[in-house]
């Protein structure tokens, strides 16, 4: 059951990322058709933007996330038990020991960052450390280390960059249409009116579709990290109890940002989460995660 769950989640993620890539290229084609009456030029522009934007985002993501969250790096003497747990699980996951950070915040939560295991870091709020026992803390730490081992941070960083490129390219296309750039640039009488309408609709809807795909990838990786955590600890009970405690706390994480919300083990915006539909959620329902863990 455990390995079936892991393989199923990996297949879903590949499918969603492929869908993301197709969306980016189709949007590029639509922009090219609107501006130059051909499908190739827009794709070339989109690929150039991707080639610049994605590497910069990957290069700076770790430092930005840690800075935005207010995390402070600690040493073994500051919290020996936490260091012992992280060290033990990083050995089980066969990755280098990640750096350990603490966030001064009463809301129980945690996140990991690191686009590759050699640059991994895990952060825990003081609220989490105060509430959880060692077994529960191991479950949470295993979940975060799984994100590093499974390269989820790199995947989500690329997704965020792709959404940024889609929004940027769609914004450029929209502005060109508003100021008549399409007509001057090549939207001449040879343009097919049906294709023009489809291209305009695509430019308007692509950013929304991209957000849906990014959130779907995020939710899927949470299930995979839960399954991987059980693989490391061989004990679903610790993570189940930890998720129950985390879900019962009503407080938001003060320094959390919308851009980094998907990286936490639980949505850091508890009050906003209640108002959103599941399609706009960064995380799967807690009840569903716990149910899947019970079946492992």
From TrEMBL:
It comes from the Bacteria. Binds 1 zinc ion per subunit. The keyword Metal-binding applies. Zn(2+) binds at residues 143, 147, 222. Its main location: membrane. It is a multi-pass membrane protein. Keywords: Cell membrane, Hydrolase, Membrane, Metal-binding, Metalloprotease, Protease, Stress response, Transmembrane, Transmembrane helix, Zinc. Residues 80-295 form the Peptidase M48 domain. The active site is at 144. Its EC number is 3.4.24.-. Its cofactor is Zn(2+). The chain crosses the membrane at residues 12-33, 39-58, 155-174, 194-213. The keyword Transcription does not apply. It holds the Pfam family Peptidase_M48. It is found in: Cell membrane. GO terms for molecular function: hydrolase activity. PANTHER family: PROTEASE HTPX. Belongs to the peptidase M48B family. This is Protease HtpX homolog.
């Amino acid at each position: 059951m455990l390995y079936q769950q892991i393989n199923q989640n990996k297949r879903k993620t590949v499918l969603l990322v492929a869908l993301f890539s197709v969306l980016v290229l189709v949007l590029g084609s639509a922009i090219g058709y609107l501006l130059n009456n051909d499908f190739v030029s827009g794709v070339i522009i989109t690929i150039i933007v991707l080639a610049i934007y994605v590497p910069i985002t990957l290069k700076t993501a770790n430092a930005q996330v840690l800075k935005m969250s207010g995390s402070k790096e600690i040493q073994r003497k500051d919290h020996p038990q936490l260091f012992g747990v992280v060290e033990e699980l990083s050995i089980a996951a066969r990755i280098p020991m990640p750096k350990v950070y603490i966030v001064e915040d009463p809301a129980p939560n945690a996140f990991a960052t690191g686009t590759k295991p050699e640059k991994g870091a895990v952060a825990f709020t003081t609220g989490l450390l105060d509430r959880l026992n060692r077994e529960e803390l191991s479950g949470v730490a295993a979940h975060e280390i799984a994100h590093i081992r499974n390269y989820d941070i790199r995947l989500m960083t690329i997704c965020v960059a792709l959404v940024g490129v889609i929004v940027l390219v769609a914004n450029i296309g929209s502005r060109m249409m508003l100021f008549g750039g399409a007509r001057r640039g090549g939207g001449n009488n040879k343009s097919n009116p049906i294709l023009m309408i489809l291209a305009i609709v695509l430019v308007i809807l692509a950013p929304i579709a991209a957000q849906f795909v990014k959130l779907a990838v995020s939710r899927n990786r949470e299930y995979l990290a839960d399954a991987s955590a059980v693989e490391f600890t061989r004990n679903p009970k610790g993570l189940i109890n930890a998720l129950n405690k985390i879900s019962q706390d009503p407080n938001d994480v003060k320094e959390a940002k919308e851009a980094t919300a998907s990286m936490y083990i639980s949505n850091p915006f508890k009050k906003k989460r209640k108002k959103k539909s599941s399609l706009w959620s960064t995380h799967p329902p807690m009840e569903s995660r716990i149910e899947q863990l019970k079946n492992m």
